[in-house]
Structure formats: C-alpha cells, structure tokens
Amino acid sequence: MDLLEVVKQAKTLVNSKAKHANYDRVVKQAKEYAAHITGEGIDDYLKRYAIRESKEMFKQRLQLTNSINPALANSLMKPFYKVSRNNNIVKKFDFKDPKLNDKINIMLNDFNGDSIDNTDGLETWLKTRFIELTFADPNAFVVLEWDAAGLKEIIKPRPFEVSSEDAYNYDYKGAELQWLFVASKIKYNKKDGDKITQTDGYKYTLYAKGFTVVHEQIDRAYLNSIGLALAANQTFETINNIDYLLSVYNTNLNYVPAFRVGYARDITTKGKTFVNPFNPAMPYFRKALKVTSELDITMTAHAFPQKMQYVQKCQGASPTEPCDNGKCPTTQDTCKACHGSGFKTVTTAQEAIYLPMPESKEDFLPLNDLLVYKNPPIDIVEFQKKYLQDLKQDTHLAVYNSNMFAVTEAQFAKTATEIDSNMEGIYDAIEPFTEKYSKVWKLIAYTCAALSGFGLERNDFDLVHTFPADPKLKTLGILLNELKSVNDSNAPSFTRDIINNDIAEVVFNGDIEALTKYRVRHNFYPFNGKSSDEISMLLSTQYVSELTKILYSNFEAIFTEIEKANPKFYELKPADQWKIVDEMVLKFKDEILQTAEPIKIDFGTGQAAAATASPGDASGADTGTGSTDGAGQSAQPGANPNNDGQQATQ
What we know:
Shape: flat
C-alpha cells in the first residue's frame, strides 16, 4: 500500500475500533496466565462451593489462601532460562561490509540498553523479558521502534511491547505480518476555561509496510493555548467528533518491524493464535489452586492440638461485684474478672489454677486429669499434601513429558537410559522455543542492518542463529550419574570425554575465563576420557612416546611454568600454544635427564653395572641384551609380563 492507502486504513480502524476475531479469547488467556505466574489477581480464579460455603466463609478462605502456583510456574520456566545460556549457540552475521557489521554489532549491544552498560543488549533482553512474555502473554507483539538520528549517529532500536489487550487487530498473509493496529490508553491535557485537567484517552497506531500512522487523542483548545507548532508530518484530524493529532512516519522498510511473541499454536483457533508453554498443564494449575486453598483452611481451622481442662467458676471481681455466668447480678455489667466467660482461667504464665484442698482422699482429683491436649487426625492433611505433590509432578509431565525437574535426582536418574528418556521429552518441548528465539534474533539483526543502510533488495549476506541439538540442560548431579553409568559399562573413552566436557561447562558456567582455561588444557591433556587403569597400562607400554609420558606425568607443573612465563597464553592462537607447550616439554625432558641418578644392578656375577634410567623406561635400565624401541625403552628377553622392573629368572 502507498501512503494514502495506509492513512485511509488507519482512519477506518480508528473509526470502527474493530478487533480481531479471537481478541476476547487471547485477552482472557493472558489474564489467567499472568495470575498463575505472578499471583496477582489469583483470587479471581478461586471458586466458591455455594452448597456448603457462604459468601462470608468464602471471603475468609480467600484471605487465608496462599497460592503455590507462582512457584510452580517458576519451576516450569527455569529450563527456558537454561537453554538461552547455552555456550554452543551458533550466531553470526556478515553483510559484506566491515563498517556496517561494526555498526550492527553496536546496535545489537545497545538494544534496550543504556549509555553506561550497553553490552549484550539484545542477548540480555532475549534471555529475560522475551521468556517472560512467552509465558505471560504469548499473543503479545513486540514492535521495533527507534528515534531519528543524525548523520554521524547510530540508530538505537528498542522493543515496544504491545499486550494482547492493546493489539486490537492485525492481518497476516501466510506467516508474514501485513499490518498491526494498536490501541494504547493515555492521559492528555484538556482545557475547560482556565482549568486544565488530565483526561483519559487513546492513542491509535497502525504499523504497516513502509509507514507508521499515529492518531493521538488531544484537546485543540489546550494545544492552541500552549502554541503547539505542528511538524511537517503532522496534522489535526477529527473522527466521530473526537480530535486527534495525526502523525505519519516513513520507516523505509518493505516489511512490518514487529513479531508476535508466542510459538505454541492454539488448536482451538486453528493456529491463528498462540498459547503459552505450560498451557497443557492449566487444568493442574486450577486444581492446585483449589487444593492449596483447602489445605490452608484445614491447617488454620483444624490442624492444631485442642486444649481441654477443668476450670473453676468465676467468683467475681470483689464481694460487692460477684459473677453469675459472666455478668454482675447487681449491675448487669460484664464481669471484670472473667470478661464475660464465667470461668476462672489462666491467661498468662504468671497465673495458676488454685483448687481447694479436698476433705477426704476419695475427693482428690488427679492433676493430670485436669488438663489434656487432643491432637487431631492428620490423615486428611497428609492426603492433601501428597495430592499437591502429585499435581506438581503432573504439571511437569504435561509440559515436558518428564517430571525430572519436579523430583529429586535420586528418584529418577538411576540409569543412563532413564536419564536420556527424561531429557528427550524436555528437548522436544524446548526445541520449538529455540526456533522462535533464533527467528527473533535474526529479524532484529536484519532490521538493524536495514536501518544502517543495507539495501533491502540485496540477498548477498550471511545471517545465522542456531541452537545445538543438545540444549545442555542436564544438571551436575545428572551428569555425574551418567559418568558413573559410562564407567560401569566400560563405554568408549570418547563418551566419557564428552560427559566430562559437559560437567566442566556446568561447573564453570558464568566464568568464561575459567572455562577457556579448561578447554585449552583439555586440548593438550594426553589421555582424555581414559580411566586411571587404562592410563597406567598405556604408560607401561612402548606405544606411548617419551614426550607424551613426560607431559602427562608433569602436566600441572608444565602449565604452571607456562602461565608464569606467558600470562596471555590462553588467549594465543592454537598454533602458538602448541609451540610453547612443546618447548616446555622438551625443557622438562632435559631437566629429568640431568637429574637422573645412576642405578647399580647386580646380575648375579658379583659385579655391578651402572646405567642411567631414562624417562619412560619400563624395564628400569638398558642392559644391552635386548633391542631398544623408539621410545627409549628396552625389550628384555624373559622379562616379567607385568613390566614391574624386576628381572625374570632364567
């Protein structure tokens, strides 16, 4: 559409205020999702059992109810936060212009950021607010907005959130958004004589391809009083006797710079709207709200010991003010001693119950029988608690086809097969979100390029954002369980090495320097994935080079020396790192040869032969009777097969 058509359509939408067909449904869903996530407004979803509960009793139950649903929703959201922290995400862009690439990088870092700390702007927003919107309001839109910038300034795009309630109408052709009509509530100044008041109004915005049209409700009398000067892109317009300030902006984009947040299609609307990730578990959320409320009222009203005791009748405050069932018979006032109860009771720790001494032994009443505490049965309480725990697990099963995050690891992580089965369900639930995440990242990066002058007709660019097949959601406990299973099953060493790397990423999560150090050291470690028994066997053979044995035996010492001599070692290129490590290993070899002590061996002839033990020599010394292998070891006829350095009897 050209500009005139867009302005005409905007006027039509403002006049009709037409909403899309599923407006009421998505607004209702967003309200309930937000209530279960935040706890705000959760009372609206607690139902009164009218047959047995009066309005007053229901009101009291609302006051006592402390919903666990926000905690339950939080546990369901956590895996989504974890997946966004994956260190193996592939993301890159190249628009074939180094200066343009640098500018885009600045724009992405400053996305929704500030002038002081403007690093990882887009990444931070995606890892936080985008996930919150995905759960709280999946039918919300995010529009990319920006302010005009000078010739030497870099445009700073920012996200503008449009709730499902404000997104009145929109149109899609296939998966491409054609236009979005937004109605936002505002306050505007209204002049009535000499009085100026803040008045409720609306601001209507039509986001279309190439243009943005804004109708903002105004009071012309007030604007005239302040002498407002209209800009070149502004004019006044009256629709249905309401005055608006009409502003038109040219985005120079051949698409609408906006996207809908959700990714899980709503089958009820045939995929025209979205539901949030835990929508399949909503029946359990509603049940949990009901059961929690019942448990709270049970704990308050019944789950405490009942005190029963014999007490004396109140005698009154004084002889002139006796007590008769809580009333003073002479004045008909409430007794000042018992405050109307009619009984003499203990109210503080400084008081006691005094009984007259009986005249005979038979009249004595055992003091233990004067007061007793009766504990109520707790079967119903235990049942409700167990039911709540079952509901929590059921919600996880409904969302992830796994209750792995709802129970302790000892209960489910017994074998590698069980772990894989649990994780597959979680990966299946997470994968559509990662696809949406990548799509949003690429849209924002491309928009930054377009705003920086990249021609929209060009297609010679690279724009990639993909998540790995393994989202790395396993906890340290799960990985240790897997490692144990792999060790017990004698699995190949590369399998053990993969798990060790995953463990390192969990341990060093957030510490990039430590993780980098681990990865570099891992590249040089000679026996990655090997067990201690396998390493011992390899060291005793001639199939491992002398330098490898030196590197393994002195690994920590070698890298300590390297770090002292080269503080920037872990930042060097791999080729330079290899060169430094090789030189350090040779240095250690020379030191070992220089410090080796002569070994005297008695061959039974009464004479001693002196030999120098070389590093890696499995036989202990070269007697000259066997051939020497390339590793500096001696092959001895009749040597003991355990290779323990002792001479076999011949």
